[in-house]
Amino acid sequence: QVQLVESGGGLVQAGGSLRLSCAVSGRTFSSYVMGWFRQAPGKEREFVAAINWSYSTTNYGDSVKGRFTISRDTTNNVMYLQMNSLKPEDTAVYYCAAAQFGSYDDWGQGTQVTVSS
Question: Bridge partners of 48?
Answer without folding.
Answer: none
